[in-house]
Amino acid sequence: MKLFKLPILKSIIDRFDSDIANFGFQKAFANIIKNSNTKLEIIKKDKSINEILANKPVIVVANHPFEIEPLILLGSMPNRIKASK
After folding, report:
1. Which terminus of the chain, N or C, has less C-beta within 10 A?
2. DSSP letter at 79?
3. What is the distance between the alpha carbons of residues 80 and 85, in angstroms, rounded to a whole number?
4. Which residues are within 8 A (CB) of 25 and not within 5 positions of it... i.e. 6 or more apart?
5. Cα–Cα dist 27/12, whole Å
6. Alpha carbons 47 and 74: distance in angstroms, whole number
């Protein structure tokens, strides 16, 4: 039995695919966090961090690339209007 054929996973994956198509990758991850009823607290030391993350060139590095942290990190970042390829 393949995992994606389980009804609950299929609906989550379908919604995620739809969110990526409609809103982009970052917003799709933000929606997963929002819809999971998970409490996510973001503590920022500098008030300009959202401006930097939303509008300036940045490189994001996660130290657990095969865990959930990169997804949470991406989903918690402000949405970027323009992203470089």
Report:
1. C
2. P
3. 13
4. 74
5. 15
6. 19
- For residue 67, what are the contacts with CB-CB under 8 A and spacing of at least 6? none
Tens digits of residue pLDDT in 38-73 = 777 777 667 788 788 888 888 877 777 677 777 788
Q: Could you give the CA distance from residue 47 to residue 66 in angstroms, rounded to a whole number? A: 30
Residue type, 41: E
Note whether 31 and 19 are within 8 A (CB): yes
Structure token digits, residue 66: 């095969």
**Residue carrying structure tokens 């095969």:** 66
For tokens 């409490």, what's the residue? 39
Amino acid at residue number 24: G
In angstroms, how far is CA 19 from the centroid of its own chain? 11
Q: Domain residue spans in the chain?
A: 3-76
Number of C-beta neighbours around residue 1 at 10 A:
5
